[in-house]
From TrEMBL:
Organism of this sequence: Paracoccus aestuarii
SUPFAM superfamilies membership: P-loop containing nucleoside triphosphate hydrolases
Native organism taxonomy: Bacteria, Pseudomonadati, Pseudomonadota, Alphaproteobacteria, Rhodobacterales
A GO molecular-function descriptor: ATP hydrolysis activity
Name this protein carries in UniProt: AFG1 family ATPase
GO cellular component, one term: cytoplasm
Sorted UniProt keywords: ATP-binding, Nucleotide-binding
Length: 364
């Protein structure tokens, strides 16, 4: 098991990261969690449980976790990646919070079909049996189904000795704000405060926006535009090795050909030439802070289905305030100016124009 601080410093020395005082201030908190996990005994079954063949371990005093919150683009996800890497031999899983909750809801449905009366406990204990450290990206609660079970879920995880580290754009008290039956959710906030150290990553730098208001829409989609996107990719990811990003959505896979950290790149046809829908594009928008798209074509009745998917994709990126950098056949207003769907596309063109603003993503 290593230290997050050591990994961070090596990345800085290699030129892969730029030292940030706010990020540096958070590193000891991450190291503290790993140090305590390394010293704490793993949850175990008591002798009588082992004799009876009962699988549940004894409730274990968990290591205090960490709730890291702050504005978008401050490096929270990058720090989470380093922590998961430093965990080494500690059973650890890093996962987007929304993806995790989808898995939990699927597990609850299966438990109901088996006739389980307490559906949350067996699902939570199955998670606890496989990990000691859960690293969540972007904890946010918007779904009432999640809000009603998350407190019980985490209570069992903590009982079973699971340590949770999560990032969020919101202070705990703002989770599920104005949600239906929010009073039933409030004990979860108390649980976070009791079992997790709440730390603000208070950086003045938004690394998604630190581009000096540079160009983000390149026309036409020719070799020069490709070179421009290559340069943007290099500026955003440095020497990080690009890997495909595979998202599982409702049992199917959505693949972005290249990603590094919270930056991803895809061709238009990879995203819009396949039969994907709103849930798929919402998953993409949750998984990235910056998306580069190559080769947006002119849109018309001849590629109507692809055009509709592009509209849905832009809606998802817009609502999630994802920075879009793209090469396209023409300016947004000229991409789709005749045929069925052209009138509706005016709204998308307006959004694409707004998303080119230098301050895009900074506004709440």
């Amino acid at each position: 098991m290593g230290k997050v601080t050591d990994l961070y410093n090596r990345r800085v020395q290699a030129g892969q990261l730029r030292a940030d005082p706010a990020q540096t201030a958070v590193l000891p908190h991450l190291d503290r969690v790993l140090d305590q996990l390394g010293q704490a005994p793993a949850p175990r079954r008591s002798a009588w449980r082992a004799l009876l063949g009962v699988g549940n371990p004894e409730p274990a005093p968990g290591v205090q976790g960490l709730y890291l919150w702050g504005g978008v683009g401050r490096g929270k996800s990058m720090l989470m990646e380093l922590m998961a890497e430093a965990a080494d031999d500690i059973p650890c899983r890093r996962v987007h919070f929304h993806e995790f909750m989808q898995e939990i809801q699927a597990g609850l449905n299966a438990a109901r079909q088996r006739g389980e009366q307490d559906t949350v406990r067996p699902v939570a204990e199955a998670v606890a049996a496989s990990v000691r450290l859960l690293c969540f990206d972007e904890m946010q609660i918007t779904d009432i189904a999640d809000a009603m079970i998350v407190g019980r879920l985490f209570q069992v995880l903590f009982e079973r000795g699971v340590t949770v580290v999560t990032t969020s754009n919101r202070v705990p008290e703002d989770l599920y704000k104005h949600g239906l039956n929010r009073q039933l959710f409030l004990p979860f906030i108390d649980l976070i405060r009791a079992r997790m150290q709440v730390v603000c990553l208070d950086s003045e730098t938004d690394y998604r926006q630190n581009r000096d208001g540079g160009q983000v829409w390149f026309t036409p989609a020719d070799a020069r535009a490709k070179s421009a996107l290559d340069a943007e990719w290099q500026a955003l990811t440095g020497d990080a090795e690009a890997q495909p990003l595979v998202l599982t959505v409702q049992g199917r896979q959505v693949t972005l050909p290249a990603h590094a950290g919270r930056v991803a790149r895809s061709g238009f046809w990879d995203l819009c030439g396949r039969p994907l829908g709103a849930a798929d594009y919402l998953a993409v928008a949750r998984a990235v802070d910056v998306l580069l798209i190559d080769g947006v074509p002119r849109l018309s009745a001849s590629n109507y289905n692809e055009a509709r998917r592009f509209v849905t994709l832009i809606d998802a990126l817009y609502e999630a305030r994802v920075r879009l950098i793209a090469s396209a056949a023409d300016e947004p207003e000229q991409l789709y100016n005749e045929g069925e769907g052209s009138f509706e596309f005016e709204r998308t063109a307006s959004r694409l124009r707004e998303m080119q603003d230098a301050d895009w993503g900074r506004r709440p």
